[in-house]
Design brief:
With 566 residues, the chain is an alpha/beta fold. The protein is built from 18 helices and 25 strands. The chain has a domain of 113 residues. The longest helix has 16 residues.
Amino acid sequence: MSHDLIIRGGLIVDGTGSEPYLGDVAIDNDTITALGHVEGIGAREIDAKGHAVTPGFVDLHTHLDAQAGWDPDLTPIVWHGVTTALIGNCGVTFAPCKPRDREYLAGMMESVEDIPSSVILNGLPWDWESYGEYLDSLETLNPAINLVGMVGHCAIRTWVMGERGVDDIPTSDEIAQMAALAGKSVAEGAVGFSSSRLVAHKMPDGRSIPGTFAKTEEMVAIAKAVGDNNGLIQNVLEYSRLDTEMAQLREQALAAQTRVIFTAPHIPGESGKANAYVDIIETMLAEGIDITGLALPRSFGFLSGLKTNIMFMSPAWKELISLDVDSRLAAIQDADTRAKLIQEASEMGSSGDGTPSLDAWVSNFYWLGEGETPEYTKGADESLPAIAKANGEHPAETWLRIMLESNGEALFHVRFGNHDYDAMEEFLKSDWVLPSLGDTGAHLTQIIDAGWATFMLSHWHREKGTFTLAETIRMLTSAQARILGFADRGTLAVGMRADVNIIDVDKVTEGQPTLIRDFPDDTPRLTQQAKGYLATICNGKIIVENGVLTGDRAGRVLRNQQSATA
């Protein structure tokens, strides 16, 4: 018997958490047709001896909504084994959208996610109004991996209330309209509804985005309509009022009776509790609520270097930032310029203008190192202030020296969450927590966390041994596919869709972040390669081989399984 593709002799890690076993995988068209000992020949065969064969990874938190228009390869997550990505997170989406509101919604995405609105408007066809039409349009982009979309609160409020949706309290009739529109969007194929409660998510004019302060009545009405159509609920919370936010999330979950996901950075608990969420989560789980917190499996934050705009804060530093990268490097080669930069950095916070003090600003700067792999797990004794003290330097002097020694290539990770790796280890073991939150497609020149799945394999499995290979792969595959409601992806079994990775687990690792200019209008963005992925297969086609895109783009726009067009 012949097959389109046979993967020979690999360690099959099927995504269920079961013990891995040696065997072959046969694929025909877009489906797995045989496992174990596969007889016959394949039109193409891959020798996977010594390597793991796994389902493709699922990424539940991306902002690839805009990028899909001009980078259908959906880099860099395609290099990190991801074959299915969820877009439409954090309430900012492009559908439903009336023609007059296109610039308005694009402006929100720019302000919240650091994606230029001109690039958004010019890079997408904008040939839709309803959510179903939006998904139809996405299909024409021919993505390399599978895309799954949520409908956002900002778009829903804007459709019903116009610009009043930013600040005004909706009438009962408007709440009913929003709920109906959310339900309709899910019936048309959206996999769920997303909203942001984070006050820091701002409009271009400085106001918080629509839905940030929505009352429980509105959130519950929308949640029920979404749940009635088998949609999930996604929330980003305002963590300064965590108790009330979680209480409202519970009300949504009880009304919706559906899967609920929320952004869950690790927050220490009080009085010896494991974390700040534990009490309310235990209550919700006891009530049968299907809730999952998504946590980046390492520290997260900005990247600071000559190639980014995250530096120190003073007039001289702002002048440095105004230059192009080559001119920045030339400028800091001048001793007088360096002296001025160091002097102004030392005076940070002394003017009373709200600028943070130097100590507060640099305390969480960590150099990613000069090796091929970024060093994300350094301790406090390796922070920028610690390096400076050990060398008898001012922190700004150390920063500048490392930039010069690296010819402007060095990057510092400016951590602002998940600082404690011991606490993160226990947090990730929680049954209700899954790794995620790469935010790929957003914060183009500030943040790059796209390699989170690779970090799970390299750090928490291989280096720390916290999770077995079988459990790590389950967390990256079937556990995430279940939340999306897809029963045909996330595991390796006969009849399942052929989304597959072949991985050298001993070598898999993230590469150092780099800044490239491949977006429209010469827009820069951070990206990150990976090593150790021999092949990634989506819907039966090899889309990446040995880290190189093959040119095959076999992804699909996957719709809510209960929608009429699924």
